[in-house]
Amino acid sequence: MRESVLRDLASQAATDPDFLRQVREDLAGTLARHGYRLTAEEMQMVEELRRQTSAMTDEEVARTLAGGLQARSGSPPARPAASSWRDSGPARPARPGG
Question: For residue 82, how many C-alpha atoms fall within 13 Å in the half-sphere facing its CB?
């Protein structure tokens, strides 16, 4: 099992609400669209996690994934800039010159 691939997948799901929503609706299609090529064992693990978290909200799943990543690496994945990542728009571009 490739820990780095699963960690990247969990990090993206924890920080990208659109990706998480798509994964929860269409796991295989979303993974393929985003370039994830999981082994059968990795896919089975991700599918089991999806089943176990099916009653959770997207926010609860994101917090759970972020907590797991922090426990494994010592630092949480980067969070979106908005105070609430649900329904938040795109980040503002940096102002010219600073």
Answer: 12
